[in-house]
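Comment thread on ticket #2218

A.B. wrote:
> Attaching the input chain for the structure job we discussed in standup.
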Amino acid sequence: MQLDTIKQLYSTYKESGLFNRYITNNHIKPLLEILSNKINIETLGQSVKGENIFAFKIGDGDKRILMWSQMHGNESTTTKAIFDLTNTLLSDQSKTKHILEACTLYIIPILNPDGAEAYTRINANEVDLNRDAQNLTQPESLVLKSAFENFKPHFCYNLHGQRTIFSAGKANKSAVVSFLSPAQDEACSLTPNRKVAMEIISVMNAALQQIIPDQVGVYDDAFNLNCVGDTFQSKNIPTILFEAGHFPGDYEREKTRELIYMSYLTSLDYIANNDITGEKYQSYLEIPENEKLFLDVILRNVKVENSDDGEVVDIGIMFQERLIDKKIVFIPRIEKIENLSNFYAHKTIQANGLKVLGENGNALKVGDENDFVVVNNEKIPIISK
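C.D. wrote:
> Ran it. Output below, let me know if you need it in another format.
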């Protein structure tokens, strides 16, 4: 499927009812109600706090694909893209008809509704569901296990979001989208089903490189059977980790949403049209591994307080995402005061050897939260408006 076609489909079928970072059951329930006129909406179980965990199927093909999003409640970009995809596939659009004929998608849009409501990675029992694949201590984990066993997928899509800290390799390029074909043993062997997942990722990467060159990464494949992806891969089901990352300036993750949508359609089109053997996996190995080399803001060449010899340091700032009045607010917090020449920034402020003070004229220290800094009596905003 051509990228121009996918872009046109996205523009036409993007779900306008979902936007920004805060996506909960309350946001998707009206959409599921509308979708119930075309497909059956299931309730697979309840969360710790009794919230329903919904699922639905699209298509009637022989190739079964299980997709779940918001296992981590504060990772919502892939959920938005799921509804964009669903609108597209249910539109009777001739360009995607072959996917529904070849594939059946089983989609859990929000696996962790309590975490989504609280905007936290963990569930209401403060458990990371992506470390509960073996112990299965949580109701949400049991819901996913049951869906996996009952649906018997041929492919699994494990849908997540990643922080702004990641670079695609060691270059000054943020990892906008990342993938992983998880390991299924301690040796990280290139097993047949891992190669199948790698081949599909390679196809998505080739498409994305046309839009975000050098900004696709892969994660370290160190084996951890407590992780859901590793567990499902160990059951010989090709499993793909999707990570929606940071496109420059896109803190609401709307551009990334489109790129994830493109990844969905590119991969599903490939699965629908091919019997994938894993033989074309090699280009996956050329995708750079993610590094933690980015800060949201770096103040460069800041004069050290009480220094008379011109000593300078850098000040690294990360944005803290906080839920305030049902909205996500970004709070700049100082994380590092040191030489940060080995780090990159999504925004750089040059102090040129001058002192940098807080909003109240105070010296800056790690842990401070400031919307503005003062350089040479000029008030400079940390977050660009």
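A.B. wrote:
> Thanks. Noting for the ticket: The chain has nine helices and 17 strands.
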